[in-house]
Write a structure and sequence with these properties.
alpha/beta, six-stranded mixed beta sheet, 20 strands, elongated
Length: 1411
């Protein structure tokens, strides 16, 4: 019998020798010998990473011992009386493989930080095979010596495995050996069981985790390396192909994608061995023989127990190995795609970069794409499982198995059709999400101006309407999801009914109605329908997820901005002197023509030469194309004709709109350049920043806030100028740099910059646009951009003539004297932001953790739906879960009562049809009546908190933090949490039902299941503590990424001008690597949870089978079949429930963060203790400030910026003019009038204290023109009239004619009409800085006309206008605002010319103004 292949030796509990020698020795030994050249090549070509040390000698000793034993076995086999040539060949091959083990052991120790997986796998597999071989040899005569030798092999291999798992950290050659994580040095079994995660879990269970506590995840996840690999693969793809990006991802990391296939295939094999085990266990319980040769029942029982251990433990190990590799693929895809999107954003046009597409793609689409990677394997393996399950089913039911295939085909076809619909609806949903996030980003960035202009309620309603549109689009997808739920349930419950019908009435394979056979069929059908149901449900999700991948591919395939400039000769960057070779021109434009879509021709035949050592100024009216001309020099504009030639790339730039990062003032000035104290001191002196530093508590280490929100407009402008000068570039380009500065400050900077020779030292050049003609006196060369687009060079005589005329006009004007009283104070606005300390962050995070998973958070989320709706849904869901298990319970009743009565099948079929209907209807009820009101209220609460917050809070709060709540957290609450809730609740019900079924069907299992339940709960709680913290850390890091994205989008022009693309990319790589660490570790601890639960389930299964075969009299075959059938699904259900419940609790962290944010945001309050405000208040506009002391910021200390004891009365008419140095407190007065700051004293409008008026109503009754202006995403009309119609008086109606009239008054209608009219997008207007200010005047006049306002506040509203345009617009608004009370802040005399009186502020102190 031993000469047959077997594999089992008939009549014995053993294998044949022929089978063991072939499969247990020749096959694994040959595989190892075949791979040996790869490791020899490693020795010859690679460098050693680890020193030998005692560990290598110990490994070598054990490996040599294994080889010695194998050599002795070869000798004894040749002398064996069996005289088997195959046995001799097997022993010889096994000996040669042991020599290979010595070589691979040396390579694994010396040339790899992480022990070689192949070696550990080989040793582990052959260890089990050796144990079986020892048993076989022991039961054969004449093999006693060989048996003794073979007995030592398992022990030696265990010892070698232990040594392989021992850390090599002390022997690592690299100096950073102590920084290497446990995972990097972990052995195969350490990684296969995620044992290396345990220290992190223990630490998280007892401590608050910080980023510094997280281990390094390895260089293979470095974002820069991942991006470079993906870029190479992406560049080779045909961008028009639908799957170009997917192919690029796979080809960039092919080995990982391949390595994941083997453990998944092994997992499928273990899964489909369960029905055969079930059949044998049930047959054994019923007393039937499971083997044809009738081995002893004791041996059969032992075989069933060992088979159970092998199958369930094998499932756990193979699933863990697959999850480990898949986890690595997901983190690598995430890193590669995120950096690719950011890299692309740096190469798009300014208009495209300023769009918030990158934020949406990274925070929403890439998260969804990560699911695509998992679904690639899941869908492929499910197809294999369905195919394999159908084949196995045919062994039990014959041709009736084809019915399962038919159900599969029908379900797949229906699902594919549904998937196309979901892909379209999901695409619309994603677009709506993008619109909301982009609008939110745009609004949050301008939230201070929105508060000042009284637009907060209108913008809140606008975001709510965008949210409503998003939810409307989501419900279309949810409707299709509900149908998908029904389809998946249909496959899960109806397919068994169809197959059973075929077996009963067609193939007659169930005529005998064998209990074991019936339950085996149900088990196979369950294993077939589970992947089938998942496949059907995943296909629509695949379509939706692939739509996100398509969006990313479309973004990456966009045409990049092409630099039209030609470089004549290269030059150094950031030098201290120009090239030794004389350069005729740094920049030379010849015959340049620039046109844009909708705008027509902007520049015509423009020719400009920028010469070394010269100051070149560009003059022109508002909107003539000055900034466009600078953009041509910077390479930001495509040329229709002409050439732009450079002799240097060393260019510095300061835009008209300052770009500041949310960091310190010093870091904003030095940028990405090394710190040089001499240069830094000089540029601070030139820009007159030392006085500002002296007034700030942290001097130049003060944080500027998001977009510089903690600084005044003039301070931001001067820091921007200082950064451009700090670079010491060959060419410095300044776009209207003095527009936000008062006259004294700008004059001082001009003297230090131009007159003192700091503008063109060492032959460098400076190019500057200006709207103020007085600046032209400092220029060597002056160009004027005419309104028709032509550029002419002005002669020196023309410049002097215009300056003389301007001086005469100025001398003819009269500036009235000041009249006001105030007490002095020595302070400057605003205060520095106090940076949060680590302890503060820990306390805040710990407080948030207490909210995670708490009942109050669930109540907070579900409260809008109402208690009745929630109870109804929970009840309905319980019935739906019960209906899923009812068919199996019905089968037990059928088999117990009338096994041969096929009429019972009718009831069985009807029960199977019930579950799909209940599942789909239950999902629809949740989405429409629970989820929709919940997510709507959640967003509305966040909107109300942000727009109802105090001005001080918004000024100090990081805009990225606010946007993170609206983007990451809100998207998670909208897209992730609903599915998590449905899954967790449904799975929870099924687990309880399964426990009841198992306990009722198999009484011996009753004590085991509660213990297992307590174990599961303990594991869940142990895991949850760390997973929450890792999720919080990942979200915090994501917030920094979002901030980096927003700042880069806002400053893309500056980044490219300074050629900082590589440096900001490096910063992004660093930030992303920080974010990747908690994300990867969070996935690892999730896989640890799955691994522990799988092994726990394996232990429970072994105990159940042991009780069944050892105490078979305690249960019938029928009850055992139902119990084991439930047990097969029970393990998966418990894992699914724990993962779903933990994911739900972790996901609810987003709700907890939103709730906590809403609770900590300080709200505006007012004393509503007087009679209602009269209609059309104020009637006159009399403004009285009496002893007003105002503080800008949250610090009410003596050295805080403030206005002290200001008393002034402003009557309707010309009004009050306020002048003063930047940062002196001018804007504080306006903020006080708008009740945006806490103040002492009284401010009355028409004898009504403003603190007794609703703040939003107050601001809506005042027309305010802010310093920064507003630029909202949307149409021109929406920007012109952004106020919600419901918030205006009923008699106030805004018509298109009124809008056109206002644009005509400011001189913009011709431009707007030519570029699309009122319905065109605002960003398509491409207004210059001056044109944006003109547009702001049009909005203000329209607001004044519609709201009949009597008070006008203007903060540097004409700073970007040239003199002619300023004079024209001032005449227009004097007519439009006639009879109104006006408060004007300006540093330009023309804007103050009509004021009744002037006051000058110096650090809050009012000084007299002389005419």
């Amino acid at each position: 019998m031993d000469n047959t292949f077997g594999p089992r030796l008939l009549g014995h509990f053993d294998f044949t020798l022929l089978f063991e020698h072939t499969i247990f020795e020749i096959v694994p030994g040959s595989i190892l010998i075949f791979t040996l050249p790869l490791y020899v090549h490693k020795i010859l070509t690679c460098k050693r990473l680890v020193r030998p040390g005692w560990l290598l000698w110990a490994k070598a000793t054990v490996a040599v011992g294994i080889a010695a034993v194998q050599l002795a076995s070869v000798v004894f086999w040749f002398k064996s009386p069996l005289d088997s040539r195959l046995a001799e060949a097997a022993a010889l091959i096994y000996f040669l493989s042991s020599i290979g083990v010595i070589v691979i052991t040396y390579v694994s120790h010396t040339y790899f930080l992480q022990p070689v997986i192949f070696l550990a796998s080989y040793l582990s597999i052959t260890l089990l095979l050796d144990l079986a071989t020892v048993y076989t040899y022991y039961h054969r005569t004449g093999l006693a010596t060989i048996t003794g030798l073979t007995c030592s092999l398992p022990a030696l291999k265990v010892l070698l495995l232990v040594l392989e798992e021992t850390s090599k950290r002390p022997l690592v050659i690299a100096e950073n050996r102590n920084q290497l994580s446990r995972e990097i040095l972990a052995g195969f079994w350490n990684r296969a069981t995620f044992f290396w995660v345990n220290p992190l879990l223990l630490f998280g269970f007892t401590h608050i985790i910080q980023n510094r506590d997280l281990p390094n995840i390895g260089e293979q996840f470095d974002s820069k390396l991942l991006f470079q690999t993906l870029k190479v693969a992406w560049d080779k793809q045909n961008k028009t192909s639908k799957y170009a990006l997917l192919r690029a991802l796979v080809s960039s990391m092919p080995w990982l994608f391949l390595f994941a296939i083997l453990p998944r295939l092994v997992l499928i094999g273990f899964i489909f061995s369960q029905p055969f085990l079930l059949q044998d266990v049930v047959n054994y319980t019923s007393g039937e023989a499971t083997q044809p040769d009738h081995i002893s029942r004791e041996q059969e029982a032992t075989a069933l127990i060992l088979a159970t251990a092998l199958i369930f433990c094998g499932k756990a190990i193979s699933r863990t190995c697959f999850s480990y590799i898949r986890n690595q693929i997901i983190i690598m895809v995430r890193g590669a795609l995120t950096t690719a999107v950011y890299y692309k954003s740096l190469r798009l046009s300014v208009a495209e970069s300023e769009d918030s597409a990158t934020v949406t793609l990274i925070t929403t689409d890439i998260v969804t794409v990560e699911e695509v990677i998992s679904m690639l394997y899941d869908c492929a393996s499910m197809v294999l499982e369905v195919t394999f399950g159908t084949v196995v089913l045919s062994l039990f039911t014959g041709a009736a198995s084809a019915l399962a295939v038919i159900c599969t085909v029908i379900g797949t076809l229906m699902s594919m059709r549904l998937a196309k619909h979901i892909a379209n609806t999901r695409k619309i949903w994603n677009e709506r999400i993008h619109n909301r996030v982009a609008a939110t980003s745009n609004i949050v960035a301008q939230v201070k101006d929105i508060k000042m202009t009284g637009l907060a309620p209108s913008m809140a309603n606008h975001l709510k309407s965008l949210r409503a549109n998003e939810i409307e689009a989501s419900l279309r997808t949810r409707k299709a999801n509900c149908i998908s739920f029904g389809l998946s349930s249909f496959a899960d419950t109806v397919t068994p009914a169809v197959v059973v019908a075929g077996a009963l009435f067609w193939t007659k394979t169930l005529d005998t109605m064998s209990t074991a056979r019936f339950y085996a069929i149900l088990a196979v059908v369950t294993l077939l329908t589970d992947p089938l149901a998942s496949l059907i449900s995943l296909l629509p999700i695949w379509s939706a997820s692939f739509a996100c991948l398509s969006r990313i591919q479309s973004y990456l395939a966009q045409e990049e901005l092409q630099d039209p400039r030609r470089i004549r000769a290269s030059s150094h960057h950031g030098s201290h002197s120009v090239s030794a070779q004389p350069q005729p021109h740094f920049i030379h434009l010849r015959g340049v023509n620039v046109t844009m879509d909708l705008t027509g021709i902007i520049l015509r035949n423009a020719s400009i030469a920028i010469r070394p050592g010269e100051i070149t100024m560009i003059d022109g009216t508002v909107g003539c194309g000055k900034s466009t001309l600078l953009n041509v020099m910077l390479g930001e504009m495509p040329l229709r004709n002409g050439t732009a030639t450079l002799s240097t790339r060393s260019i510095a730039f300061a835009g008209q709109k300052p770009w500041l990062l949310n960091t310190t003032i010093r870091l904003n000035i030095i940028g990405h350049n090394p710190y040089n104290e001499v240069i830094y001191t000089r540029v601070v002196y030139i820009c007159d920043l030392q006085f500002d530093f002296d007034q700030l508590p942290n001097r130049d280490e003060t944080l500027v806030g998001s977009g510089g929100c903690q600084l005044s407009g003039g301070q931001k402008q001067r820091i921007s100028i200082a950064r451009a000068l700090y670079v010491e570039a060959d060419v410095t380009i300044l776009d209207d740099p003095f527009s936000s500065l008062d006259r004294d400050t700008s004059s001082l900077i001009r003297i230090r910059l131009f007159d003192d020779g700091h503008a063109t030292p060492d032959g460098r050049s400076l190019v500057m646009t200006t709207s103020t003609k007085q600046h032209l006196v400092n220029a060597h060369t002056v160009y004027r951009v005419q309104s028709d687009g032509f550029v002419v060079q002005m002669t020196q005589q023309q410049v002097e003539s215009e300056l003389e005329k301007l001086a005469r006009d100025h001398r003819a004007g009269v500036v009235p004297a000041a009249a006001a009283s105030a007490n002095p104070t020595a302070s400057v606005e605003p205060p520095a932001v106090v940076e949060a300390t680590d302890s503060d962050a820990e306390k805040q995070r710990e407080a948030t953790y207490k909210k995670y998973g708490s009942f109050s958070v669930y109540k907070y989320f579900l409260r809008p739906a109402g208690i009745i709706a929630v109870i109804a849904w929970l009840t309905f869901d319980a019935v739906s879960a019960a209906s899923e298990r009812m068919p199996n319970i019905y089968v037990r009743v059928w088999l117990d009562k009338h096994a041969g009565d096929n009429r019972y099948y009718i009831g069985y079929a009807l029960i199977c049809l019930l579950h799909p209907i209940l599942n789909g209807v239950g999902g629809a009820f949740f989405f429409w009546y629970i989820n929709t009101p919940a997510i709507t209220e959640l967003h509305d609460n966040l909107v109300a908190s942000v727009f109802g917050a105090t001005f001080t809070f918004l000024a100090e709060e990081d805009a990225g933090c606010i946007l993170n709540r609206f983007s990451t957290d809100m998207n998670l609450a909208t897209q992730g949490i609903p599915g998590l809730i449905l899954n967790a609740i449904f799975r929870g019900y099924t687990v309880v039902i399964d426990i009841a079924i198992i306990s009722a069907g198999a009484s011996y299992a009753a004590p085991i299941i509660p213990f297992f339940g307590f174990l599961v709960l303990a594991i869940q709680q142990f895991y949850l503590s760390t997973s929450r913290q890792l999720r919080a850390l990942e979200l915090d890091a994501t917030k920094l990424l979002v901030r980096h994205l927003l700042e880069s989008a806002a400053g893309i022009l500056h980044i490219r001008a300074f050629r900082w693309q590589e440096k900001v990319m490096d910063e992004f790589f660093t930030s992303l690597n920080i974010a990747q660490t908690p994300f990867y570790l969070l996935n690892c601890v999730q896989q640890w949870l799955e691994c522990v639960l799988d092994f726990s389930t394996a232990g429970a299964a072994i105990l159940v089978v042991t009780f069944a075969v050892k105490f078979s009299n305690t249960a019938s075959a029928n009850s055992m079949g139902l119990a084991f059938l439930s047990l097969i699904g029970f393990s998966a259900n418990v894992v699914a429930w724990v993962k779903a419940s933990v994911a739900m609790e972790t996901g609810f962290g987003a709700v907890a963060r939103i709730r906590a944010y809403c609770e900590v945001v300080p709200r505006e309050i007012y004393k509503d203790d007087k009679e209602p405000v009269p209609d059309y208040w104020p009637h006159h506009g009399l403004l009285e400030l009496n002893c007003v002391s105002a503080v800008y910021g949250s610090q009410e200390t003596s050295d805080a910026p403030q206005i002290n004891n200001l008393t002034v009365t402003i009557r309707p008419g010309p009004g009050l003019g306020i002048i003063g140095r930047t940062g002196s407190g001018k804007t504080t007065i306006l903020l006080s009038i708008l009740n945006l700051l806490k103040y002492k004293g009284t401010i009355c409008i028409d004898n009504r204290e403003i603190r007794t008026i609703c703040p939003e109503f107050l601001r809506s009754q005042i027309t305010t023109l802010t310093q920064g202006g507003l630029h909202l995403l949307g149409s021109v009309k929406f920007n012109l009239d952004p106020f919600d119609a419901s918030l205006r008086p009923p008699t106030s109606i805004i018509t298109d004619a009124m809008c056109v009239s206002m644009l005509q008054k400011v001189g913009l209608w011709d431009i707007v009409s030519a570029r699309g009219g009122l319905t065109a997008r605002m960003k398509d207007m491409k207004f210059s800085g001056g044109q944006r200010q003109l547009f702001q005047f049009a909005r203000a006049m329209l607001h004044h006309q519609s709201m009949r306002t009597k008070i006008i506040l203007m903060d540097e509203a004409t700073s970007s206008l040239d003199e002619e345009t300023e004079a024209r617009i001032l005449t227009t608004i004097n007519t439009a605002f006639a009879g109104c009370t006006k408060v004007v802040i300006s540093h330009r005399p023309a804007a103050l010319g009509n004021s009744d009186f002037l006051i000058r502020l110096n650090a809050g102190q009012v000084e007299p103004v002389t005419t």
